[in-house]
Amino acid sequence: MQPKKIHLGYEIGTGKAVSIPLGHLAVTGQTQQSGKTTTLEALTSRAIDRFPALRTVKLLENTDGVTLRAIAFVTKRAESGFSGNCFRLAPFFQSRSDWQFVSDILESKLHEKLKFQRSWIMKVCRGTSSLQEVKTRVQKELSTAKRGLDQSVYTELDAYLDLVIPELEKLPYTEQLTLRPGLNVMDLSGYSTSLQMLVISSVMQHVYEHESGVVTIIPEAWEFVPQKRGSPVMRAAEALIRKSAAAGNYVWLDSQDLAGVHKDILKHCSVWILGVQREENEVQRTLKNVYGLRGNRPQADDIRALGKGEFYACWGSETRRVYVQPVWCDDKAAQMYALRQSTVPIRIGKTLGEYIDDGPVAVAHSTFVPGREEAIVSTPYMPQLYALESHIEQGNVKEALRLVREVRGTLSKQGSPPGAAAGSEVPAAAHPPVQTSAQIHDDETKLFNGLLSRLLQSPGLLLEISALQPEIVVQTRKQVIEIAGDTLRGRLARLIAENFFDAGANGQRAFDECKRRGWSTAKPNVYRELDKLAEMGFLLKEPQGYTKSPAAKVTVKTLEAE
């Protein structure tokens, strides 16, 4: 029987649909640059088959009638992932007091391994049923301890537990866990990492002992199953990933890198989805895990150049460079991007006002999706908006004007699209209506004008744009500054006038020149004054040092001695 398959996205370059086997999985990549959470959201929604109305391909094949459930954890504040159709669960915690669990708690809190203290931990944990009982036992042993070493260890343990137990008492947890069909989410963002570990560990232990057909998503795996120290999550994750696949339980890891994740967990992942990395060591680790590309293995620059949503997906003997299709993106938009025929689809807000506030965004080539809250607007000229913002920031007035005219011309030529007859009505429906071509054109015009007005509020430029005849007027003010020649700034200005900085010179060279001319000063003062002159527009800061600004004019006046 063929393994279960989940639609992942489309292969970059060929546009072929890519599906991966259902199994233990690891997703890595730089935070905010790779799209790890969006990838996990997409895979989860397809695996549990929560959005049948949106499907145009078979998202989960050979399921044998099993509907998967998933449990995810939100551990960071302002985390936007896993906020769609899901069931919110209260934190679940099962109190334990075995010595391994207590050791893991203390190690995670201290960020270091406990060594010789374990024999004392074993002693105080024997016969207890909660952490509070362990603390009571520690205090009792401390009061009767006679040896200095015993007193030292029990004092440490008492202090460690003082850090953990008060936090645990504030946690509004439940001792009953019911996973509903679909995506279940626990929001732990308001609690410390130590408490988050206790909850995640309890959930994984429950899944291992009582559930089947559950995908458990471990966020920030480098933190919750770390390589170099203990963690309450580690033991539960190891049991679940080693022994529970036969029951249809799988672990999906989300991590910024590979180095910090415990290798006993990583080695059981049969599917690797590897995103952008830029630090050299992480790039090399990623390359070592990309396999199967005979004669066409990626290079380090290929890993660094991966865009958001682009990953190397590796499983079995297969490796594909894939654009992962987000759950909110239609097939055509994702495939067109994989073929490099469009800009990258990016999720946007619900109203045009929110689009404008958030700044320029590339969007999917589709209209409103029935039954969805989010809107996806077709805007083919978003690349020009990105370029326009860049030109305005850099002061490239000529290029900015060209882009404004180009997009304004496109909008004026489009006019009112065919099929937009006056008085035409949109049929009432239970779901939000699909936009007509006239509505799309109107939205595009409003979106462009709103974004343009936001972009044009740039310091140093006055942009006056007419709807009929766009033009840009740049107002500059000549800055005339008189500097005494016996000051350090005046002496550096003299070097500018004598073309010392024409070919570029760093602060060290300028300092050496001052010494050569007998101008006594300290090196930090030279750097500070050079920065001031650059800020005033007389110098440009380049990688090789400072160069004279083309617009700068320095006049040296010789005054006769009085």
Low-confidence stretches: 50-66, 348-379, 416-437, 457-473
* Total number of distinct structural domains: 4
Tell me what portion of residues adopts beta-strand conformation.
5-15%
CATH architecture call of the largest domain: 3-Layer(aba) Sandwich
> Number of helical runs?
19
Distance between the termini: 102 Å
Q: How is the quaternary structure best described?
A: single chain
CATH class of the largest domain: Alpha Beta
Q: Which radius of gyration do the C-alpha atoms yield?
A: 31 Å
Name given to the CATH homologous superfamily of the largest domain: P-loop containing nucleotide triphosphate hydrolases
Largest sheet: 12 strands, mixed
Q: Based on helices, strands and strand pairing, what is the structural class?
A: alpha/beta
Mean pLDDT: 73
Which descriptor suits the 3D outline?
flat
- CATH topology title of the largest domain: Rossmann fold
